[in-house]
Structure formats: C-alpha cells, structure tokens
C-alpha cells in the first residue's frame, strides 16, 4: 500500500527478564515507516525511587533491543511508571534510548523537555508526535510542572495545542495519551472528550494506553482515536500463573498492533496474544469489527462513575487478599528479602527499605478495611 505506514504497539514492560516477540510481529514492524511503543517502566534503578508508590516498574535496558532494527522507532515515556525511580533514572533511560537510535517523547528533566515533540520527516512529510498522561491522583503520574516528569493532557492542554500550531510545514500530527480506568473496556466520558478535543484542534491520530485491556477505536471527523491498545507485553498480567489471573483471566493478555496509513487514512487492528514471555499474533474472528463497535458503547457520566466505583470495590477486595497473602509469604520465607532487593534497589544492605515495603503493605490493608479515610 503506498503512503506512510505507522505501526503502534501497546504497553511494554519487560520485568526482570527479557521477553520475546514473534518473527511475524517483527516483520510487520520492519515493513512500517514509523513504529511506536509505550515503555511503561524505567530502564535504570535508583535509591531515589518513588516513596509514594507500592508498584515500581523496572526493565533491564537490554530488553528494548527487541525494538531495534525498525525505521523511525519512537519510545513513549508519557506514563505513570517512567518516573518510578526518580529523575536520575529517567535521565539515564532517555539517554540510553537515544544512544540506541530511538526517538523519545513524553517525559523529561523539566516541562520544556517533557513537552517537546518528536518531529520526523518521512517520505518528504513532516510528522510530529506528542505525549501526555493523566494527572488523576490515584494513578500517581509525575507531572512536570516545576521539576521532572510528564505533561498532563488536562493541565497542559493549551500548551500542547499551541506547540503543535507553531510547527511550520507540519503535515501530520499524533498524540499519545496515557488515560482511562484500568481494566475497563468502556471508554470514559473524559477520554472521549479529550480525544475528540485533540482531533478538533488539528491532530490526525490519538493513540491511548494505560487500561491494560483493549478499548474501542473511533473514527471521528477526519481523525482516528484508538482509545487503548492493551498490554503488548506486561509479565505481571501475562503469565499463565499470574496472581492477576483470578481477577482478569484473559483480557489483559490480548492487545493489538495498530497499522495506519496517513495517505489513505486506512487502519488495521491486528490482535496479539502475550503469554509466558512471548508475544505472537492471535487468531480472533472479526476482531477489527469488534474493536470498532466497542467505541460505540457509551455511559453517561453518572452511570460511568457508578460502574467505576463497583470495579474499584471489586479490585480493592482482590488486592486486599493478595496483600494479606504477600505478608504471610514474607513471614514464612526469609529468603523473600533477596528477591525484594532485586525488585526495589541495588543496595544490598538497605534492609530498612524492606521494612518500609512491609509497612506500605500493612497500610494498604488498613486502608482497605476502613482504618484510613
């Protein structure tokens, strides 16, 4: 098909060990002029990690090598886990990605760097890519206001739109948004409002992430909004023996590769399955039709909020039990501390850190049973 072809992948977090991508997906990406993935972790650790979070995501820097060899590959850092290990780790992550030939967007040492788009010329056409994340309190994204972090699509809406308008000779523009409610296939009224707002302001393509499950694709006016592609690779959810299996047994293992042709405005949504360390194409009948129809389902703000509250109660009940199980495991197995060292810090002597982790878990349990308000 003539014209510029984009291929976008979903959330990518590799964990402690590298994961594999099937040859057919690699071939698909090599056939594209522009490839995008959402790197939802830091590639470096630091003792300056986020003390206000209990889930810190780290991937070995070598893990991103699976994306090497593609044309014009963009690593999106505009999410709630890029800054998990603080400003130094973020700077190292950015620098490493650039050294390996990746374009980087979505986070930086200050607001100016975080807001700056990736601008590419492909087949004589100028393309700009922006990125922003949610500033909802419970998601705990680090928003770049007076320090390092990511842009907020709400707080920095006017700056993003204005920065796009100031790019001379721009042919196409894309914004990558980390938004929505986790594990919800239903598009929120806020997502729909801001997705359409960016299309109305001149963006050609809105690509979403964060929900860990797929959401619908909407063809809105002259643009396209892919609300969420799901987990491209995310071992916390994609292992067959994952603790999350009891909460969402299969949805979080399904994602899709979005192929988009800027000239014809034609799109393809090809389903993928991530399971036990490898991502491969999936055979799901009428998937593209389903993903387009999924965007038609809407709830009023009141009904949507009620739906989210029910989901939250169910999720809290589930995580309460998992935190209790985790503390029991700690009490029975002293060697678990060795595993925690790997997950949280490079400092082998920082045992007070592990006590803080335990206290965080206890606090979560107390919160869930109503001790904290």
Polypeptide structure, described:
The chain folds into 2 domains: 5-298, Purple Acid Phosphatase, chain A, domain 2 (4-Layer Sandwich); 303-368, no CATH class. It has helices at residues 23-30, 86-99, 111-115, 157-165, 189-200, 235-238, 287-294, 301-332, 336-344, 351-368; strands spanning 5-12, 20-21, 34-39, 73-76, 103-105, 118-122, 125-133, 172-178, 205-209, 217-220, 223-226, 231-233, 254-261, 266-275, 278-281. The radius of gyration is 20 Å and the shape is globular. The N and C termini lie far apart (57 Å). Helices cover 32% and strands 22% of the residues. The protein is of the alpha/beta class and 373 residues long. Helix 8 (301-332) packs across helix 10.
Keywords:
single chain, 373 residues, alpha/beta, Purple Acid Phosphatase, chain A, domain 2, 2 domains, nine-stranded mixed beta sheet, six-stranded mixed beta sheet, 15 strands, globular
